[in-house]
Input
Amino acid sequence: MGTDRTGHTAADKNAAEVKTPEISIIVPVYNTEQYLDRCIRSIVRQTFPDFELILVDDGSPDACPHMCDMWAERDSRIRVLHKENGGLSSARNAGLAAAVGNYIGFVDSDDWIAEDMYEHLYGLLCTTGADIASGRIRRVRGGRREEAGGEGLKGKGRAERVSTSVYSQEAFAKQFFKIHSNETVHYAVNKLYQRKTAMRMNFPEGLINEDVEGFFKALAGAERIAVSDKTVYFYWENTEGISYAWFSRRQMDLLTVWKHICDICRKEKPEWFPYAHWNYARANLGLLCRLALSDKGGEKEYRTERELLLKNLRKYRRELLRAPIPLSRKITAQMMCVSYGLTGWALRQAQHCAGSRRSIRRD
Output
């Protein structure tokens, strides 16, 4: 089915005869009944009212499906999609297929957003002509009081001084690939996308670290990216979840994601391929460090993963040493190639000392 230059299909245009919302907000829902109301409340209270909220029930086994339906009865802007469980990427992709808005946003169902998030990001897109607008994320750990980000729900607290930068695709790509930068910019959720840009995302199903690949696809189709330092998104860190664990087997998916990105670069952006491959090499180092820091680093259960990561690191060591990454990472890579056990011990000692210093400061 063909699309026009705005990224709409004929089916989209038929839907528009009813009323096309300006923004489609996609929320995958799975096993988050404890947090879902907080998330949805923060969206329906948005100061930008012209949106549709697509709740994608990903076969959730708890009360979430019923909660979604109840919210849809209360607010005509809410649509619910019920589907079999397929994971976060599958749910996001289902939401993208159903979305009819001119702009697309994503929120995870255990997080919440500032009440003016979409008004702010929409304004950035309109005033700068950018394809993607991004705001700041604040992390709130499960062990802390929820009030750490409460101002985002009620729009209260000290007024922020907001500054905005507009990047070319090439300039922002260097941030994405962490070229002379250590800032993480690949999150899908703290952004608003032009429709045609969002429709490129097609998140990889069955993998974690899906944001890295999904956002890269959007970036590869964007000309300008507007970045604000205003806090718009509150990320709830579940300290018992896989994303917080030092190491799990599923985190090896990151290697697959970077292989996918390397393949895309070969086809669409060959000038970016060296950057992508540096990041593939660095992902091996990062995972190896996580494994060494975890209490699983010496277990036979993870012997296969450890040997694969060491093999890859030794294979790409020279490339990594030439990459524009911090000297400390290059030293760690060299040490890992010489002695995994000794390097792991040194990393654990450094972590212990850093933790002790934080405890002293708190006391």
